[in-house]
Specification:
Elements (H helix, E strand, L loop, with lengths): L8 E5 L4 H12 L3 E6 L2 H11 L4 E4 L5 H15 L4 E4 L14 H29 L2 E5 L12 H21 L5 E7 L1 E2 L2 H9 L1 H8 L8 E2 L1 H14 L3 E4 L3 H6 L1 H4 L5 H22 L19
Parallel strand pairs: 1-2, 1-4, 2-3, 4-5, 5-6, 6-9, 7-8
Helix pairs in contact: 1-8, 3-4, 4-5, 6-7, 7-11
Length: 297
């Protein structure tokens, strides 16, 4: 069902950069009142200023439940409610399971999965009042595993199941929910991985379509905003990712394992060498490992 965004009240987490920033800008251009939540106050303030006097922002870390709840409540009070929510905050880390530091794995899961849980939990009372709609940003890697992305894939698979369970739990409240599955989007996350790990870029180029293409952040954000207006339950960016989702049983089956094994055997040794050369302290994607961008998708 198509709805105008004019006057609708939208909260976006991870809104300082990447997909979150572009969603806020596109929705604002279509008349939505937008509230930004993230960890880079200077950027959030500037974006809100660009969006005009109806836009607002709050600094909050999705790992801090009390701060996040306060930010969401403040946004709802300022706007007079919340009609839409885009739970977008996320990070990525390099490393195979045997390489990845436990603290780093925990951090990825805490932001990507637990952060979405906290966001949904604290936004639900406001969404119930408006019979609102939620879009949770997962990933194509929710169902398509890749070596050296174990923590990200695990967290995003969890995000998908969390969103699908939440959709059932709040249906009787009039809240609707959907899941976004982007493939490679031209953000700091993907650019940082390509720059740091030449073998990662080469590995991506060897994947079947759509795994071997990168989509602009404008196209990705535009698809998300369109999905908000239509209250869609699934969003695939690009659309061909939907075919991969339907085919995941085959992709992850014994039938496909011989190809996957050869693919990984060629990629993993070089990936591990490049990751080791970066140093453990640099295994977080550049630009996403420091405190400010920890809620950037």
């Amino acid at each position: 069902m198509q709805r105008s965004l004019a006057g609708r009240r939208l909260v976006v987490t991870g809104a300082a950069r990447g997909i979150g920033e572009k969603v806020a800008r596109i929705a604002g251009a279509r008349g939505a009142r937008v509230a930004l939540i993230g960890l880079e106050p200077d950027r959030l303030r500037a974006i809100a200023g660009d969006l005009g006097p109806t836009a607002s922002w709050r600094e909050a870390d999705v790992r801090d439940s009390a701060a996040l709840r306060s930010a969401i409540d403040d946004c709802a009070e300022i706007m007079g409610g919340i009609d839409y929510l885009v739970a977008n905050a996320g990070i990525a880390a390099y490393g195979t399971v045997r390489q990845l530091d436990e603290t780093m794995f925990d951090r990825v899961v805490d932001i990507n999965l637990n952060g979405v849980f906290r966001t949904l939990k604290h936004a639900t009372p406001h969404l119930e009042r408006t019979r609102g709609h939620v879009l949770v940003v997962a990933s194509a890697l929710s169902f398509l595993p890749l070596p050296a992305m174990a923590s990200y894939s695990a967290s995003k698979a969890g995000v998908e199941m969390l969103a699908l369970a939440y959709r059932q739990e709040v249906a009787h409240l009039g809240i609707t929910a959907g899941v976004v599955h982007p493939s490679w989007i031209d953000t700091d996350l993907v650019r940082g991985a390509d720059a740091d790990l030449p073998s990662f870029m080469e590995m991506r180029s060897r994947l079947p379509y759509p795994g071997n293409v990168t989509t602009s952040v404008d196209d990705a954000a535009g698809a998300i905003v369109d999905a908000l207006a239509r209250r869609r339950s699934r969003v695939y960016v690009p659309r061909a990712v939907g075919v991969a989702n339907w085919a995941k049983g085959v992709v992850n089956s014994p039938l496909a394992w011989p190809w996957a094994r050869r693919f990984a055997a060629k990629a993993v040794p070089t990936l591990e060498q490049e990751i080791d050369a970066l140093g453990r302290q640099n295994q977080l994607v550049p630009g996403l490992g420091k405190k400010p961008p920890a809620t950037t998708k």
